[in-house]
Amino acid sequence: MSKVMTYPAHIWAIAVLGLPLIGGHLAQFAIGLTDTIMLGRYDVEALAAVTLAGSFYFVLFLFGGGFGLAVMPMVATSAAEEDETSIRRSTRMGLWLSLLYGMLVMPLLWWSYPILIATDQDPQVAQTASEYLRVAGWGLFPALVVMVLKSYLAALERTQIVLWITVAAAVVNGLTNYALIFGHWGAPELGVMGAAIASVVTQTVSLVAVIFYAVKVLPEHSLFQRFWRPDWEMFFSVLKLGVPIGLTLLAEVSLFATSAFMMGWIGQVPLAAHGIALNLASATFMVHLGLSNAATIRAGNALGRKDRAHLEKGAIAVTGMSLVVSVVTIILFLTCAEPLISVFVESDDPQRPQILAIGAGLLAMAALFQLVDGAQVIALGLLRGLQDAKVPMVMAGLSYWVVGIPASYYFGFIRGMDGIGVWLGLVLGLASAAVLLMTRFWTRSVKAVGVPAE
User: Fold this and answer.
1) Cα 337 to Cα 280: distance, rounded to the nearest angstrom
2) Cα distance between residue 112 and residue 60, in whole Å
């Protein structure tokens, strides 16, 4: 029985569930990392443009991803209750909402140039970024559908297939990028547009693979039979949970997107250094995110069984695992900054010394926010598992928009600390979120589940 699980047993269970999720997130991250490395070696201006475009794209993608993340705890809870019908209903309506959202925001990706210019970006960088988004934006539809289906599979603890589909997509992305950015293997040299085409191809391959698996291996859920039929009760249930999750994601990603805009005000080289440092910090964040997803699934199971003892021990175990990862990352960023940054820049690039100098300072700041970044995403995972999203949304909004963004501007520009100041604001925003969300979970949300641990 789960109520008698020891802490080592919890750690083992989280690892078995979470390691494939971590691997999947790292493989997903490798897709963006491949773009950054290849474009950095192709042209620094191209790297700056895609850094800007990527920030804009992910603001929109992650808000829509809220519907996929809403499916995860709903399916996990339904699975614990052995309610197969609700598993199908919530997943199907998550797909509906994702597709509808994609249609609503596609015009923003198509006509992104005036939006980017309104943020006071370099006109040439903004033009290149908008051209990239006109192509890469079509990948939003398969990407959102894939996110829903991966959440559905992960909630059913089929995390191995999620990992392998994402690994396959990363390989496809790398090969397509290599061919189309540089013009290898007889392909045209397309630079930034090659990276955009590779992004759409990658998302489409992922979509085909995940649909094939869901239909062939889990036919009992009949996800796509009579897909056109509405289920308004479940539609609004997923919407009610997905919107605050999406807004929470939007608040956090907007903090980082705004930091990219601010770095663009400082200059093209600082923006490129920001993109490299953020990619390195994001790689370690994928580990915390995988643990957070595992926390969501296990908390959703505990909610379905009304098992508070299991929830509390599991929460302590996953938080401790995240803390260990943070300590290792802090040591790595403080001792190996230059070798890590060098991977992204050619040895003969004339701007290499500037990028290394700026990037090393930014990585030192990234080391500072590892603890709080891990803590806030673990807390969010636990709260989502309990389907507690509205108050965490407000907490995230206050932390990132009222604390983080103003602090970035204040330290970066008013205090004249430039990129270091911008990143200090990130640290303060994440720290505020970590404190508020962890407090919410332990003082309020956990008490709504079953009976207390003995």
Assistant:
1) 10
2) 12
DSSP characters for 205-246? HHHHHHHHHHHHH-GGG-TTTTTTS--HHHHHHHHHHHHHHH
Contact between 415 and 421 (Cβ < 8 Å): yes
For the record, the structure tokens of 350 come out as: 């004339």
The C-alpha atoms of residue 342 and residue 37 are separated, in whole angstroms, by 10
Chain position carrying tokens 């090659």:
194
Decide if 430 contacts 253 (C-beta within 8 A): no
Whole-angstrom Cα distance, residue 66 to residue 156? 18
- Dig out the tokens for 121 from the structure: 């970006």
- Residue count of the chain, please give it: 454
Specify the DSSP class assigned to residue 139. G
Distances (CA, A) of 240 to 61, 62, 88: 18, 16, 18
Average pLDDT, the chain: 86
Task: Count other Cβ atoms within 10 Å, centred on residue 423.
Answer: 28
Return d(Cα 110, Cα 218) in angstroms, integer. Answer: 36
- DSSP designation for 452: -
The whole-angstrom separation of Cα 229 and Cα 223 is 11
> What is this structure's pTM?
0.82
Q: Which of 40-44, 306-310, 324-328, 412-416 is the least confident region?
A: 40-44
Residue boundaries of the structural domains of the chain: 10-230, 245-453
3-class DSSP state of 274: helix
